[in-house]
Amino acid sequence: MARSTSPYRCTECGWTTVKWVGRCAECQQWGTVVEAAEQTGIVRSVQAAAVPASRAAQPISSIRAEDSAHRPSGVGEFDRVLGGGIVPGAAILLSGEPGVGKSTLLLEVAARAAASGRRVLYVSAEESVAQVRLRADRTGALHDGLYLAAETDLATILGQIDQVSPELLVVDSVQTVSSSASDGLPGQPSQVREVASTLIRVAKERQLPLLLVGHVTKDGTIAGPRLLEHLVDVVCQFEGDRQTALRFVRALKNRFGPTDEVGCFEMTGDGIAEVPDPSGLFLSSGRSEVSGTCVTVALEGRRALPVEVQALVVATKAPQPRRVVNGVDPSRVAMILAVLERRAGLSGLGERDVYVSTVGGVRLIEPGADLAIAVAIASAMRDAAVPHTLAAFGEISLAGEIRPVTAAKQRASEARRLGYTTLLDVEAGSVRAAVAHAMRAATSTRERELDAAF
């Protein structure tokens, strides 16, 4: 008789093979191929089970909409991302880089929920209760309605839920909790799947909002099986640069609200603070007009934020001029330089070093900032300061045309609200006309300064 061998199966996508491999040939994931159970070839039929009266199907019109309404968490920027608040029974996954402030944000959410009269259970699987208490002392998140527990076993966490009967549950983090019902170490796909599915099932049965902290891998994706993102209702990503105090929360998936909202926060010595109006964070504080600067209005989710773009053009004797960028796409800057030299008549850029950067550490990845980058480079090239009242937004094509961008009316209204009276957009027609208009305004500004000096 031929010996029956157990095939190996990928825990991510279900791909099978007769021998073990380190990398799945289907989904290209490493370390997900494990030995599966022996296939018997017997097809078992599933018998229908009796449905309890409490779980019987109901007409959709008889279900109360108030039971699934959003409830504010107390943190306005977090509620903005969630679509108005936390829905009872919702499972929310918050992921982000290590040290970005995930635990600090959720501790603040838990403290404000406890201050509003709700009982909150905060389960820390990474820190002790004394360490969480130290952070709560620093951030002012102390309240008698907030219960702390340091547990890594799933069964013990379920016992804590039965004992405390919370109205909000926070688990930090799902990758460090293990279950005895599943084999493997904490953090492996089978363990993460078992822990997440059990906690989500309990949350749905009890109408208990669940906030989970998720780790990310080195390439920025959420650690664990892809199934984790399908199980939860909301997936939020916490972004931020270690060099700056600004933090952004984005919704990558939201079953109860939009996915184009962005919440702004600032990390301070006393914890995390909301930034409801971040309009002045990405503008330089100096009031004197300097050449090589231009303001654009970027769109972050549904928010229109003014961002200052700075450029510096200097002569060089090197055979290969340098192109150094920070906060913008290098390929788009190279394209804009070519368009300026070929279509706008700005010759000599190929013989000079060009530096382009944004203020405040913000990243501009949308093409709507092309026109502002072009005006800043032209201003630095001509050494003519653009007035503070001028803002530009628009996409530049290779033909030198200015294309319209999304939410142009919202950008224009935000710019006018902040005092920008001169707007360069698609109505300028071409990048040559827009740059010429900006340079004329810059020249007249310089003449007025000379007249005032003498």
Automatic annotation (TrEMBL):
Q: Name one GO cellular component term.
A: cytosol
Single GO term (MF): zinc ion binding
Which InterPro entries does the entry link to? AAA+_ATPase, DNA_repair_RadA, P-loop_NTPase, RecA_ATP-bd, Ribosomal_Su5_D2-typ_SF, Ribsml_uS5_D2-typ_fold_subgr, Rubredoxin_2
Q: Where is this motif: RadA KNRFG motif?
A: 253-257
The protein's superkingdom reads Bacteria
Q: Which SMART domains match?
A: AAA
Q: Where does ATP bind?
A: 96-103
Identify the SUPFAM superfamilies for this entry: P-loop containing nucleoside triphosphate hydrolases (SSF52540), Ribosomal protein S5 domain 2-like (SSF54211)
Q: What segment(s) does the record annotate as region Lon-protease-like?
A: 353-454
**Record domain RecA family profile: where:** 67-216
GO BP annotations listed: recombinational repair
Q: Which UniProt keywords apply?
A: ATP-binding, DNA damage, DNA repair, DNA-binding, Hydrolase, Metal-binding, Nucleotide-binding, Stress response, Zinc, Zinc-finger
Comment text on domains: The middle region has homology to RecA with ATPase motifs including the RadA KNRFG motif, while the C-terminus is homologous to Lon protease.
Role this protein plays: Plays a role in repairing double-strand DNA breaks, probably involving stabilizing or processing branched DNA or blocked replication forks. DNA-dependent ATPase involved in processing of recombination intermediates, plays a role in repairing DNA breaks. Stimulates the branch migration of RecA-mediated strand transfer reactions, allowing the 3' invading strand to extend heteroduplex DNA faster. Binds ssDNA in the presence of ADP but not other nucleotides, has ATPase activity that is stimulated by ssDNA and various branched DNA structures, but inhibited by SSB. Does not have RecA's homology-searching function.
The family line of this record is: Belongs to the RecA family. RadA subfamily.
UniProt protein name: DNA repair protein RadA
Instruction: List the source organism.
Output: Agromyces archimandritae
UniProt lists the gene as: radA
